[in-house]
Specification:
Keywords: Signal
Strand content: 35-45%
CATH class: Mainly Beta
Largest sheet: 6 strands, mixed
Oligomer: single chain
Helix content: under 10%
Amino acid sequence: MKHVYLNFKAFTVLTLALGLTTACSTDETVTETETGEEADSRWITVAAAAMGENPGDGNGGTLIYAVTSEEAKDPTVSIEPFESGFIVPSNRTARLQASEDGTTIFNISYAGDTGGNYTKYNVEGGQDFVQTGSAISIAPYVGSAPRWIKLFDGDQTGAAVYVSTENEISDNGTPDDATDDFYVRTEATMGIVTLDLENSLIREFQEHSVPLSAEEEAQGYYISRIDMPTLNATGDKLYIGARLSKVNPETGESDRNGEILASKSIVLDYPSLMNPKVITSGVGMGNTNGYRSINAFEYNGAVYQANQGDPQGSHILRIGSDNEYDDSYQFNLDDALGVEAAYILAWRPAANGKAIVAYRHAGSAEGLAGAQGFFALVDLNAKTAEKIDAIPYDPDFYLFQYQGFAVDGDDIYVTQAPVGKNGNIYVIDTETGDVTKGAELVNKEGSHFIGVF
């Protein structure tokens, strides 16, 4: 078996660190084969999340390791990021992005003393990631645990968001008892900052109130979390996914038993970040903010967005060129896969409109760190989905924290490894559905892999 190593100094650094802390590809790189001939290739960066206190929590830090696409497809190659990977600066699981050609990794540290610090690295193979350009902190704008994404504008811009909330209480008494205070609504204030990724500069920052309808607010609903900004096809609007929460208007306390409302997003002018507007789907219900992975993508003039927590199972929703939800497009994953309570954990399309979806469902086994995950091949045009049976599954195959899919033409690379167990890279040809078993991923107790970039 061919092992991919550089040295073991990163393992020492990781030990110290643990003691201190409890889009579609365009360009290609060129490498030289063993025969001296040149072959088209690109870097594939594997991301691994070390255990903190509990298996699968990913709170022990993030390590990355880069191989060529040929090595990634080679099952005789063995990759050991927990032994010889590069430690990405972050108190908890790093929030990573990659350039469209795979030659650059972008990171904004999550939480801790360095939370909100933006850095970027040239990918040079193995554990060699060389910081390039200057670093900058976006913490003064969006806090030390920002939710951020790289926009698909040729690797030029990043966007980070936050939302803060405050209950408004009237001191004028209720209609029934003029001596008591009562809940009126919850004010949700969003902040958004755009970052020049090349020059490490803040481009724009705005804050806005993002109210719901008067009827929804009277019932105690408000926007509690936002994430995953996505540019429309013309580049003049930005869509931001939203999660709704609810309080009991009678008590002002959190209410987790309320009705799940229709899916919503916030639309802003771009690049000014002005004129926010909340739009509502007539098809899907639940949240659109995603979690760790990009949740919405522009394809063929529209933006396709996954929703989560839908009682009817996750949908892929479509926002049209009029910047409103296109309710004529109905794609329900329960129906397409023949399962119940499908929940899209992460997903990524290629340029051909075929996508890989990481999901769980009501039949998922309860594993060491959470519900078992699966991969499916999805066709956005035909509105079909099929579980990828060529990838092996295990009750401990945990995809809730999954972040990255590497896209190279029609090929999409994924990682498969249960928590604490070895696995492999798999490469799916989205056009044909063919699956290639690639390099071995060597795991560590309680740890897991969170994708490739």
